[in-house]
């Protein structure tokens, strides 16, 4: 008998799960419900929309024809506020209820609201959703100087987009830029390039207070100094959207707790993407890894199990790619502090390479402006490919050898 798969959300994890279910079963009903009023899109593309390099028509990853072809039902503008597990029903903000045979919670995350005196927690400016991007574009009208608060990937991508729009950009960061993604050497390389493009970077400071006066924003820093800006954009992080699950019996900590099948502690209820707290590939610790490759993989695993196949997730791997002003920096896996076996160098052309090994396995890579494919290196790490005899050659010719090693592993 055909089942009804209800998916709350229509982001990366939700679509990945829906496509996996449909690939296994043509008859089951698949419904996606989203609080947003748009077709599905990737939040990672929003900085390109902000900069003007991406047109809005090219933002959507699924339209009516795509949804119809795969037999997906998408309901927009409907907010999920709770679930009654024992009745297999979800609750909506408008008072409606809906039943399910299997449920996937893929509600994603919300932008973190910083504890700044004088900041309206509901009206603060960020770049997390399409609506945020539209609001930001409106607020940028006639602005010349913008301050970005945060040093992570979203903050740096937002700053890059604003510089490309011709704005004067300041970045205020609590420690140093890209601290959670790259070591200090790569962070300094990124910092130098941003400064060369005109960015002012204020490190080692928190924003304690803001005051609005005559169209300007005064920013009071933790070191006592004050700055003035036309607009403050908050990009200090995201938090799993789990507030609606209180009292449902679904186990949550920082995110929705799932096993390797992406199942929650309750029968027929799954979760995937930014909203989950899942096991990591390395060491098996549980944590949140809010990046697109993780959402895709978790969605596939959740969808397969919802459709009746027993499949397990290998665990999330830290992975970050930052493309800016013709440069590319990326990191995957463990840092050099996690292993005594490493090869690293920066040549005269500014190309940085770092490979991290545990015995004969590659467990981490860092590259800046190297001609390599991040996905291939992720494969070598995830599949635990034995690279022992080829370490030096992989170091010397990373693009060619990584592809050759991946091809050999597939053949075997």
Structural summary, described in words:
This protein has 412 residues and is an alpha/beta fold. It folds into 3 domains: 175 residues, 3-Layer(bba) Sandwich (FAD/NAD(P)-binding domain); 107 residues, FAD/NAD(P)-binding domain; 84 residues, Enolase-like, domain 1. The protein has 10 helices and 25 strands. It has a 5-stranded parallel sheet. It has a 5-stranded antiparallel sheet with strand order 21-22-25-24-23. A 4-stranded parallel sheet has the order 11-10-9-15. Helix 1 runs parallel beside helix 7 and helix 8 packs across helix 10. The longest helix has 15 residues. It starts with a strand and ends with a helix.
CATH class of the largest domain: Alpha Beta
Number of helices: 10
The CATH level-2 architecture of the largest domain is identified as 3-Layer(bba) Sandwich
If strands are numbered along the chain, what order do they take across the biggest sheet? 3-2-1-7-18
User: What overall geometry do the principal axes of the alpha carbons give?
Assistant: globular
CATH topology of the largest domain: FAD/NAD(P)-binding domain
**Secondary-structure content class:** alpha/beta
Low-confidence stretches: none
Distance between the termini: 39 Å
């Amino acid at each position: 008998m055909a089942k009804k798969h209800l998916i709350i959300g229509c982001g990366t994890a939700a679509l990945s799960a829906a496509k996996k279910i449909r690939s296994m079963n043509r008859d089951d009903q698949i419904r996606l419900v989203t609080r947003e009023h748009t077709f599905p899109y990737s939040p990672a593309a929003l900085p390109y929309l902000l900069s003007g390099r991406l047109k809005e028509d090219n933002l959507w990853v699924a339209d009516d024809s795509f949804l119809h072809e795969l037999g997906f039902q998408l309901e927009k503008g409907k907010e999920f506020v709770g679930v009654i597990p024992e009745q297999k029903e979800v609750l909506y903000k408008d008072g409606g209820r809906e039943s399910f045979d299997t449920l996937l919670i893929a509600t994603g995350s919300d932008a973190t609201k910083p504890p700044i005196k004088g900041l309206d927690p509901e009206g603060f400016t960020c770049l997390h959703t399409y609506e945020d991007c539209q609001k930001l574009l409106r607020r940028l009208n006639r602005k010349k100087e913008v301050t970005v608060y945060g040093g992570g990937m979203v903050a740096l991508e937002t700053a890059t987009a604003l510089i490309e729009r011709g704005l004067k950009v300041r970045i205020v960061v609590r420690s140093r830029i890209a601290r959670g993604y790259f070591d200090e050497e790569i962070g300094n390389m990124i910092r130098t390039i941003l400064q060369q493009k005109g960015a002012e970077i204020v490190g080692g400071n928190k924003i304690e207070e803001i005051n609005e006066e005559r169209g300007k924003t005064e920013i009071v820093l933790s070191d006592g100094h004050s700055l003035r800006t036309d607009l403050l954009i908050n990009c200090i992080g995201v938090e799993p959207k789990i507030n609606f699950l209180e009292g449902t019996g679904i186990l949550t900590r920082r995110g929705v707790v799932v096993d390797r099948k992406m199942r929650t502690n309750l029968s027929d209820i799954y979760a995937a993407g930014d909203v989950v707290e899942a096991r990591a590939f390395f060491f098996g610790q549980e944590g949140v890894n809010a990046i697109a490759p993780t959402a895709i993989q978790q969605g596939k695993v959740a969808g397969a199990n919802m459709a009746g196949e027993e499949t397990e997730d290998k665990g999330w791997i830290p992975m970050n790619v930052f493309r800016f002003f013709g440069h590319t920096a990326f990191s995957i896996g463990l840092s050099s502090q996690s292993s005594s076996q490493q090869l690293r160098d920066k040549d005269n052309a500014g190309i940085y390479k770092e490979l991290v090994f545990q015995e004969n396995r590659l467990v981490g890579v860092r590259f800046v402006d190297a001609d390599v494919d991040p996905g291939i290196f992720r494969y070598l790490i995830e599949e635990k490919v034995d690279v022992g005899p080829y370490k030096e050659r992989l170091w010397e010719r990373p693009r060619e050898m990584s592809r050759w090693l991946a091809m050999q592993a597939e053949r075997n």
